[in-house]
Design brief:
Blueprint: H1 5-18, H2 21-33, H3 59-110, H4 118-125, H5 129-160, H6 164-174, H7 176-197, H8 201-214, H9 216-244, H10 246-252, H11 264-308
């Protein structure tokens, strides 16, 4: 193993503690590393006694009501969808800028910079945005197609054979785990290559693969440390939010009926969750900044080792 994991772990903490501007970029980076979703549920009350004879409508009536609803609110639905798409892209773009900003800040510090300013770091990160976005989009699409190529035939064969074929395909599904790990490691190194060496998308992928395979043992160890450690710390950060939801469940486990005023316990839960949510976002931002800093330092270490060992570089940045 070539990586000095102890140095990476301690140096990463020194950097994010002494240069807290990276926390902001860590918060931004979190927007691209987690998918947010919302679901709305509605319930309707009927005054019928539950007797099927009381149901006066049929399927034609239901489809007619749906058609009328769509005709009346179609433009509003389209507008809401467009707004959601634009917001998703905006948050994802912030996530990309967050990752770039952390990488750029780490490499500036490692090259001798004594301070980091948000505006300066943001402006210096902008030239890498579209290459960074293209890299992540390309890798995401390839992984999506790979999963679909495996899952769709598995689903069809599972139905046709009453689930027997799923047992045969299960080992192939398990292969997605190591494949996903390899892709993630190469992606981390490729992202670092774009910022550190100013490479194009395809050059960065080649460079990321070269760096990752140069120390497979180190990549496995670093992935386990950051993955398991990050999951445990993230769980601790989320624990107060989980505890804050307890009064919510207590309130709805009582004799609460739709239309009744919300119980006091529910309001307590809502207030506690609302108060802790900004803190949770900030803590996750610090954790994300630490993890991304560690990956950035791993790239720096391995490239230095390759150069010191007189290993020829396959990729050269454009002049």
């Amino acid at each position: 193993m070539k990586l000095d994991l102890g140095k990476i772990i301690t140096r990463s903490w020194e950097i994010i503690w002494n240069y807290k501007v990276l926390w902001i970029f860590g918060i931004f980076a979190g927007f691209a590393s987690s998918n947010g979703g919302s679901s709305n549920s509605g319930s309707g009350n009927s005054s019928s006694s539950g007797n099927p004879s009381d149901f006066t409508g049929g399927s034609e009536q239901i489809f007619g009501e749906i058609s009328n609803f769509l005709q009346e609110y179609l433009l509003i639905i389209i507008a809401i969808c467009l707004v959601l798409v634009l917001l998703s892209f905006a948050f994802y773009a912030l996530g990309m800028m967050g990752r770039i900003g952390i990488l750029k800040g780490v490499y500036k510090l490692e090259d001798g910079a004594s301070s980091l300013l948000f505006a300066e770091l943001w402006s210096e990160s902008m030239p890498y945005f579209w290459r960074f976005f293209g890299l992540n989009f390309l890798v995401g699409m390839v992984m999506f197609l790979l999963v679909m190529i495996i899952l769709i035939p598995a689903f069809v064969l599972g139905i046709a054979t009453a689930g027997i074929a799923m047992l045969c395909i299960l080992p192939f599904l398990c292969l997605l785990i190591p494949i996903g790990w390899v892709v993630n490691v190469v992606l981390e190194q490729a992202q670092a290559a774009i910022v550190a060496e100013d490479l194009t998308v395809f050059e960065s992928i080649q460079r990321g693969w070269e760096i990752a395979k140069s120390d497979i043992g180190g990549m496995i160890a670093l992935s386990l440390i950051l993955g398991i450690g990050g999951a445990l710390i993230g769980g601790l950060f989320a624990l107060p939010l989980i505890l804050a939801l307890v009064p919510l469940f207590i309130g709805f486990m009582g004799n609460f009926q739709p239309g009744d005023a919300l119980p006091v316990t529910v309001w307590i839960s809502i207030i506690c969750c609302g108060a802790y949510l900004p803190i949770l976002i900030g803590l996750n931002g610090v954790l994300t900044a630490y993890i991304k800093t560690a990956w950035a330092l791993s790239y720096k270490q391995l490239t230095a080792l390759l150069q010191n060992n007189n290993t020829p570089l396959i990729i050269q940045a454009d002049a």
